[in-house]
Design a protein that fits this description.
alpha+beta; five-stranded antiparallel β-sheet; 5 helices
Length: 208
């Protein structure tokens, strides 16, 4: 009788152990978290997380960056200083002596172009003019290279701290505009001449 009770107790214990093992096997295992915790790329198992980009950061100022060539071109049009030293007497050749009074008057007014120069425009008849460039530091006087009967009604636009000179003139029924860079000896074209038709017989609003 005692043997039967011991056998029944052992059988009950075995059933209890089997039930516990089945319950543990039924519990789900979160393999996603396990994978994420062992990888070096935590975004690999999460579609909503974007992987870091190797791209360079954007310009914080949002401005356009000039490349080296564009920056050099911009700096080439500007002057570093305006000459304020003693004014050299203009050196005149035979042709320039005919306009001596006008050249000397302009030189006395000081620098008005390209940091150390003075532009003087001289009339040569109705609608006709030409110009000289006087270097205030050296006294050198050079023809500007614009004007005359082929460039009637010449208008010049320039500033003391800029090497760029803009010009406009009439050529028959057309109005011409062009930009130049003064290299201390001559004018170099910056772009092609632009031609516009006159408006009401005038260049005042041409190309507007």
């Amino acid at each position: 009788m005692e043997f039967r009770l011991q056998l029944a107790s052992c059988f009950a214990t075995c059933l209890l152990l089997v039930a516990c093992d089945q319950k543990q096997e039924a519990a789900p295992v979160d393999t996603t978290l396990a994978t994420a915790s062992t990888t070096n790329e935590p975004w690999a198992t999460y579609d909503s997380y974007a992987a870091p980009s190797d791209a360079a950061p954007a310009d914080q100022n949002g401005g356009e960056q000039l490349d080296g060539a564009a920056l050099n071109a911009q700096l080439a049009t500007q002057v570093m200083r305006i000459y304020e030293g003693p004014r050299a007497a203009p050196i005149l050749d035979d042709d320039e002596r005919a306009y001596r009074t006008r050249i000397l008057q302009a030189a006395a007014e000081g620098v008005n172009f390209a940091g150390a120069s003075t532009v003087v425009q001289i009339g040569c008849g109705s609608g006709c003019s030409f110009a000289y460039v006087i270097n205030q530091e050296t006294g050198d006087v050079r023809p500007l290279g614009l004007g005359g009967e082929e460039q009637m009604y010449l208008t010049l636009m320039f500033e003391a701290d800029q090497r760029v000179l803009e010009a406009s003139w009439e050529n028959g029924d057309q109005c011409i505009r062009a930009s130049y860079l003064w290299n201390d000896r001559t004018l170099d074209p910056l772009d092609q001449e632009q031609a516009y038709a006159k408006v009401d017989g005038s260049c005042d609003q041409a190309g507007a």
